[in-house]
Amino acid sequence: MQKRVIVIMGATGVGKTSICSYIGEKYNIPQVITHTTRPMRDGEADGVDYYFETPASFKEKHFLESVSYAGNSYGSSMEGLKKAWAKSDLAVTVLDTKGGITYKEELGDQAWLWYVTVSDQKELVERLHERGDGDVAVEKRINSAEFKRDLKLPEELEGNAEVLLNDDWKSLKAQVDGLINQSKANARFS
Ligand SMILES: Nc1ncnc2c1ncn2[C@@H]1O[C@H](COP(=O)(O)OP(=O)(O)OP(=O)(O)O)[C@@H](O)[C@H]1O
Ligand SMILES: Nc1nc2c(ncn2[C@@H]2O[C@H](COP(=O)(O)O)[C@@H](O)[C@H]2O)c(=O)[nH]1
């Protein structure tokens, strides 16, 4: 079977990480762990949620792509992707839309793009506060150019991405289950 990676994108707070955990637990799909210089949040662990880097250690890595997001650096490597593919033909990662565009260019059909959205953007700020993000961090993030950009699927990805609506967790899970089960059925008949 062709190896593929689900690339989950969308604005901050739409639920990308929650979806990644859900499909990891329910379908045993391994997560590609990426690298960041941002401070760890409560409950996060190094090597599990991210490889947490200093600016100096970040610079030493060889990335497939790297971006700046709300003042911090993020990067993903081919090595990380291959590690996940060694466990399963289908892996999952969480990227901003700029990273999604690079994955599409570099990996073609091996990048299965999922773009997550909500009907009411005000909901996102509430979710960040509920997650425990401090006021300063939330303000910085929602005022960033990257946040505003990721509120919309980029033109380059139009027609190339699955669009999921996460207004309600139960309905979101049904959309995710539908996509995964359809992909399993396609794999059986290919
Ligand atoms: N449908 C939903 N209804 C209510 N809360 C939700 C829903 N989906 C996710 N959440 C909650 O919203 C918060 C943000 O979710 P999550 O961390 O998955 O978002 P994210 O897109 O990964 O954000 P970021 O890009 O900032 O890391 C979490 O506390 C999560 O539990
Ligand atoms: N292009 C990349 N984007 C990445 C990578 N790792 C995470 N991300 C995205 O950054 C923002 C902020 O993440 P957060 O954990 O601080 O909320 C979010 O959109 C992630 O999807 C990466 O390696 N490359």
Automatic annotation (TrEMBL):
Pfam family, one: Guanylate_kin
GO molecular function: kinase activity
UniProt keyword annotations, A-Z: Kinase, Transferase
Recorded superkingdom: Bacteria
Gene3D superfamilies, per database record: P-loop containing nucleotide triphosphate hydrolases (3.40.50.300)
Keyword Manganese included in the entry's annotation: no
Reaction catalysis annotation: GMP + ATP = GDP + ADP
InterPro entries: GK/Ca_channel_bsu, Guanylate_kin-like_dom, P-loop_NTPase
Guanylate kinase-like domain location: 3-181
Family: Belongs to the guanylate kinase family.
Main function: Essential for recycling GMP and indirectly, cGMP.
Name used for this protein in its record: Guanylate kinase
Phylogenetic placement of the source organism: Bacteria, Bacillati, Bacillota, Bacilli, Lactobacillales
